[in-house]
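Renewal narrative, Specific Aim 1. Our central claim is that a sequence can be written position by position from structural information alone. The example that follows is taken directly from our test logs and has not been curated for this report. It begins with the structure tokens describing the chain, in the order in which they were read.
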């Protein structure tokens, strides 16, 4: 079995039961852990080290941290969680499931890592993020996060005024094109087998968006390996410096089957996510979800905010559980110390 070396110093996994295990060390997971650690909760973040935005050079659209690399943001986040006593453990979760509750009925979950390490926790926050599923087009994946982008708010300013191509994947690509048209006047819509009605074609024409109906066969690189354009099925090469693709997004659920978390499909086959309610609550008592795993459109700032809200909600319910347990213990102790009634004469 291949051994993956942690890209940072990993903390030891505690041997005792902890208040919360956070599965996922991105913006949502770390911010949730930060809220819990600042509330003096024992919290462990399990981080596989594979964030969605790893290929990106910088995070954008997040005030104060705009332009900061994802690696640097996560490094700072880990340091801040540790500052308040939280632990960050590098590893991959292979199993997470309910285990018999503690005396008094408080919930318990077991979390197991790929190397066999195991921890028991009272609550679980799932912040695993999502996976972008790209079209199966030769040469496309190698440019992901640079010449191939998906979010006009994450990458738009950086590709402004470039020759941009929209590689259509479905109806959502039409709106995608309108957003990228705000950023460049040189925009081509590659229909790539998808259908466009006459009204949409007229709207595109009014904005100067050229439509190419011939399917795309492959991505073409320049001599330096950068994206140079696409080759169509008829052999024609259309020069482009950037391709924008509306990916299909899939919540990362590996190792979480035992939690039995409800999932739901988004309209038009655009994605699949964990279903969640207020503050990231799920249909499973004791389990919350935050960030891209449930909100597929959330950027870093929104994911961090969702993690903070979930963390504070977990702490609030733990406080109630702690008080219930203390009250039950006090009443039991009072009963045991109460003098027995004298027998009747």
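The sequence written for that structure reads:
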């Amino acid at each position: 079995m291949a051994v993956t070396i942690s890209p940072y110093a990993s903390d030891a996994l505690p041997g005792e039961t902890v208040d919360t295990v956070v599965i996922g060390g991105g913006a949502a997971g770390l911010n949730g852990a930060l809220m819990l650690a600042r509330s003096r909760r024992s919290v462990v973040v399990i981080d596989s080290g594979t964030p969605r935005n790893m290929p990106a050079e910088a995070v954008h659209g997040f005030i104060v941290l705009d332009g900061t690399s994802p690696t640097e943001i996560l490094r700072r986040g880990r340091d801040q969680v540790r500052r308040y006593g939280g632990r960050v453990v590098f590893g991959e979760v292979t199993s997470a499931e309910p285990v018999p509750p503690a005396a008094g009925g408080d919930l318990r979950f077991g979390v197991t890592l790929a190397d066999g390490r195991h921890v028991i926790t009272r609550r679980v926050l799932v912040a695993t993020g999502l996976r972008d599923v790209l079209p199966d087009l030769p040469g496309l994946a190698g440019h992901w996060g640079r010449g191939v982008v998906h979010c006009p708010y994450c990458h738009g300013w950086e590709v402004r005024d470039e020759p941009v191509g929209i590689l259509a994947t479905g109806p959502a690509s039409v709106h995608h094109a309108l957003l990228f048209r705000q950023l460049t006047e040189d925009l081509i819509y590659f229909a790539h087998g998808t259908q466009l009605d006459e009204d949409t074609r007229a709207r595109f024409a009014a904005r100067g968006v050229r439509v190419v109906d011939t399917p795309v066969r492959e991505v073409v690189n320049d001599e330096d390996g950068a994206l140079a354009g696409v080759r169509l099925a008829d052999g024609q090469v259309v020069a482009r410096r950037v391709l924008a693709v509306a990916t299909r997004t899939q919540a990362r659920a590996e190792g979480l089957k035992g939690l039995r978390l409800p999932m739901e499909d988004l309209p038009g086959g655009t994605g699949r996510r964990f279903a969640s309610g207020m503050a990231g609550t799920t249909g499973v008592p004791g389990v919350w979800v935050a960030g891209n795993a449930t909100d597929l459109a959330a950027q870093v700032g929104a994911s961090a905010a969702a993690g903070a809200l979930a963390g504070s909600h977990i702490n609030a319910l733990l406080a109630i559980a702690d008080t219930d347990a203390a009250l039950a213990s006090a009443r039991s102790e009072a009963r045991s110390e109460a003098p027995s009634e004298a027998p009747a004469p």
